[in-house]
């Protein structure tokens, strides 16, 4: 048992600050501005950050068209933006969402895994690991406003949050569907899913590559709440208010206690995990499969 | 696979003994008497033990007004009483309940953690550990008749039981609400909760310090049954009958197999856990926080 | 993440093969024939194997009257048949079911544990371990068509499958009921159950030796689907089709990732587990208990 200094931050004061948060925070249209703690939107090309310092929260919007795939550049920018918010005491909560409703994130960018050299594959995989490590151990309250499909890596980002709200649209399926593409989810993707929905449900979902539509997603527990699409924003804000009412330090230590053993498993074998990925993705058979798959995607678009 | 000698105790005989148990066992008013195996109530000031040797069960009633907080004296008496029952072959099942309906137990006694010396803090924390170790590994069938609120340490006591029946009263909330006070639940509180409601539900409940009212408590699985307040007693007796029908030795070995890994985690680092507690609670900032909190409690009463 | 070569097996081709599977596959009556990959039924006295090479699946029917108990001979034949299917690339999925509806399997054969010498007990226990190890780590899609009661070892066989369909008959209860007989389930039985229904439900089910009738079995998650008895076959075939649509290699690696830590726990201490069993079952008290129990069973039949 540990009495945290956070105890001295009265919850009432937080709620007062909260009351100043405009309801339209998620959809604000101020001009973008670079910088850490400004009142206005900052960020860069692929991750829009809309800070609300008065409320102590920020919205991070994925903007990597067409499907918010997790390219190396996206991941790099995302981690930098997250780190900024993490280090700025102004912010206590962050909402993850997509700038283009319809797709939360399509997951890993296969183009980073095809036709490059081993050094690139290693750099890419390290960036994917880094994104997960930062999110899963974040001291911030993280809430996912899932306003689009979130397969594979997109699902993983949701799973690292403290709470997940999914828009009730039958096309917004969520899950780790790697096997459908002949791919195996890394063990830390698996661990994150097991922590969320339990061993049996994870075993079935991972083997079958299940993508859960909203009602099933709620039932299996891969999301915490399903609401009509136009209520995602208000729901997320009201959920955030509840989480922000908890003294930070106590909440952070508790979160750390729950998640550290899972994170340590990757930290301990991070280099091996990179080596495995590089050696695997460098195989001729895999490169061929990826090329064929990417060709098909191009034809679809054409 | 292990054939237990308990096999030779025919369940039918147990049920016959059971039939002799008066329905009013939980509310008997015989004069208290000290001693291990007497038919009459024994115990002390803070823990009333109502034995029913014919039935093989005893009721342990918390009586530490006003809120059954887990003071050092209460914990010492509780562990002694439990050990007596554990060592007396007459008793195979024990019911934990409160002598003052309305509060099951308010949990740890903050007065034991404030304004004392390090030796006292160490002694107190060891007693809290001891209570958990004895309860969680008890060879007895333990059933919680939760007839009042059971936050924090009160919830922990319930969680160590084999079955939890909660009275259907909206004021009887149950949960590990440590973060609400800026406190972090120890890892073995956390482990006990994860074992009961799973990783995800525990992560959310612990971070938010959730106190579940009866319907939610049942849904999340932190209790096994919710019944009207006047049916708690009869329900607990009928549940106990089912558990007592199982050969003791086989049941005990099974319980041990399920719980030992969790218990071993504390046993391995018990001294470190005490040191951590003492060092933490001795901090000036924590002492101040506790003083302020206790002052407020006094004013409320005044 | 691992791209599997299975990616190159188009799911559509599998479904075409599937379409050739006769609906009556589970009840075919061709004459038995020994041999690995023939179109006709092969097998032996106690385990009937009905292969459907065109569909890539086989049905293994337990035929060890009167209750499909897991005798040493049954286990040996079962493991050999399973290994044959495992090594024959023709087969990707296997359905486990009983040739005599009413009993799926009554579990371990107590006659193997009574009145024999230590060498026999050791051989028997090794065969039980082998059955579990092979089933739980099988590369095949395994689906249980549970058309009868499946207590103890029968339940364990179901639990090793990837999916469980139970016939909706109140007499077809399923569970690890060892404690009812004064017996303790081995730790790897326990691990398999915990993986399936979670820690708390397993703790309660194992201590009480619960046998779940269909509706409760579904609710606790010990089976995945309950259907009317005459729909078990069609349901299992349609479930199998879904699992066969997943690229094999990716699915197998995923299954392995989920189950290997559990399997490794037994593999690491397999000899100790055998020694424990032999020493335990050799005790006079246990031998007496078993003799009395077997006598009673004989009288029942007489």
Write the topology of this structure.
The structure is a homotrimer of 302-residue chains.
Chain A: E1 2-3, H1 11-19, E2 42-43, E3 47-52, E4 57-62, E5 69-70, H2 72-87, E6 93-98, E7 102-103, E8 107-108, H3 118-136, E9 141-146, E10 148-151, H4 152-159, E11 163-167, E12 174-175, E13 183-184, H5 187-197, H6 199-208, H7 214-220, E14 225-227, H8 232-244, H9 248-268, H10 270-281, H11 284-301
Parallel strand pairs in A: 4-6, 5-8, 6-9, 7-10, 9-11, 10-12, 11-14
Antiparallel strand pairs in A: 2-3, 3-4
Helix pairs in contact in A: 2-3, 3-10, 5-6, 5-9
Pfam families (chains A, B, C): ECH_1
Family (chains A, B, C): Belongs to the enoyl-CoA hydratase/isomerase family.
Protein name (chains A, B, C): Enoyl-CoA delta isomerase 1, mitochondrial
What does the model show?
The structure is a homotrimer of 302-residue chains. Chain A is an alpha/beta fold. The first copy, chain A, contains eleven helices and 14 strands. In chain A, the strands form three sheets. A seven-stranded mixed beta sheet of chain A has the order 2-3-4-6-9-11-14, sandwiched between helices. Chain A has a three-stranded parallel beta sheet with strand order 7-10-12, with helices on one face. A two-stranded parallel sheet of chain A has the order 5-8. In chain A, a hairpin with a 4-residue loop joins strand 3 (47-52) and strand 4. The longest helix of chain A is centred in the last third of the chain and has 21 residues, at 248-268. The first copy, chain A, is globular and about 55 Å long. The N and C termini of chain A lie far apart (60 Å). Chains in contact: A-B, A-C, B-C. The B-C interface holds B 1-8, 162-163, 194-198, 221, 224, 242-243, 246-247, 249-251, 253-255, 257-259 and C 108, 178-187, 189-190, 198-200, 202-204, 206-209, 276-277, 280-281, 283, 285-286, 289-290. Chains A, B, C: This is Enoyl-CoA delta isomerase 1, mitochondrial.
């Amino acid at each position: 048992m540990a009495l945290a200094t956070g105890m001295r931050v009265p919850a009432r004061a937080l709620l007062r600050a909260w009351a100043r948060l405009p309801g339209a925070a998620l959809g604000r249209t101020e001009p973008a501005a670079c910088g850490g703690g400004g009142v206005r939107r900052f960020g860069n090309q692929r991750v829009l950050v809309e800070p609300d310092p008065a409320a102590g929260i920020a919205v991070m919007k994925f903007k990597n068209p067409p499907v918010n795939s997790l390219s190396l550049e996206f991941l790099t920018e995302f981690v930098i933006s997250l780190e900024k918010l993490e280090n700025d005491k102004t912010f206590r909560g962050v909402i993850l969402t997509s700038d283009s409703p319809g797709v939360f994130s399509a997951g890993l960018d296969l183009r980073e895994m095809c036709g490059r050299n081993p050094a690139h594959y290693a750099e890419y995989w390290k960036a994917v690991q880094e994104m997960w490590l930062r999110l899963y151990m974040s001291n911030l309250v993280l809430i996912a406003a899932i306003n689009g499909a979130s397969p594979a890596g997109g699902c993983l980002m949701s799973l690292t949050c403290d709470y997940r709200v999914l828009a009730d649209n039958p096309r917004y399926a969520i899950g780790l569907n790697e096997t459908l593409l002949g791919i195996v989810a890394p063990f830390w993707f698996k661990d994150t899913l097991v922590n969320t929905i339990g061993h049996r449900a994870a075993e079935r979902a991972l083997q079958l590559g299940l993508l859960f539509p909203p009602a099933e997603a709620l039932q299996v527990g891969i999301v915490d709440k399903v609401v009509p699409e136009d209520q995602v924003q208000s729901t997320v804000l009201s959920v955030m208010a509840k989480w922000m009412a908890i003294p930070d330090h106590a909440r952070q230590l508790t979160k750390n206690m729950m998640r550290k053993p899972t994170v340590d498993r990757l930290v301990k074998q991070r280099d091996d995990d990179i080596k495995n990925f590089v050696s695997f993705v460098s195989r001729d058979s895999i490169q061929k499969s990826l090329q064929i798959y990417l060709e098909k995607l191009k034809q679809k678009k054409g």
